[in-house]
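seq:
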Amino acid sequence: MFAGICPSESADALTSIPGRARARGEIRASFTAVGERTRLARVYETDGLRLRFPRTARGCEAVVVNTAGGVAGGDQAQLSFDCGPGTDVTITTQAAEKIYRAQSHMDDDRAIINVSLDIGAGSHTEWLPQETILFDQASLSRQLNVDMHADASVTLLESIVFGRLAMGETHTTGGLHDRWRVRRDGHLIFAEDLRLGGLIGETLARPACGNGARSVATLLHIAPDAEAHLESIRTRLEDAPCEWGASAWNRFVLVRLLSASPEKVRAAILSLLSCLRDRDAPRVWN
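struct:
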């Protein structure tokens, strides 16, 4: 018997309880520059999502914490960050985000994660979450939307691991839709949609698709001087333990990484971050 339900009410009450609980988590935060420091101005948190702020030597580091320990089918998370003019903000996650198996392939059983960044003039913002791990038969729809001022800079990173490799999940199935949209002064400058479905492991095993990759990552750095970093990035990746490609145009640098080993992709990411930023990686990455 459920607490608070008397015997005469139990039958009707139980019929109103949904078959699966659906989390609807949200974080809204805004940051402002106070002299040479960046401060949290406002924050709103709900339904298992929290934002924590470890001490840093410079800037403001915000760590997203999912107290549920993962994202189940049908869960939704909305993360919105307003980085005001002149701010220095790094947003990361406490750990790798686990996307659990969905109960069905219906649209309403997908996990949904939406991230929005509004970046003001002269702001330096980093979106650096740790890996997203797709369990076998997981279904995820994820969006990253960025609106930035022309003289702002932003570094965006997403890395995905397909399957719990330590558990032998190498032939993963499921669904993934990953959508990026970046606007600078209102003009669309970067758009990308990645869709994988069905036998994802078999798709990634094809030489022309992933050549056996089980971990992939994309890093996009946008800044007035972004293209000047291309050669140093390529030099840094020359001895990287994974396959990679880097190109630059229109004041941004785009880097792709893939490997059968998530550890090798992570090592390359840490090397890239040390090349792009004049400080260590966020402490939670260690």
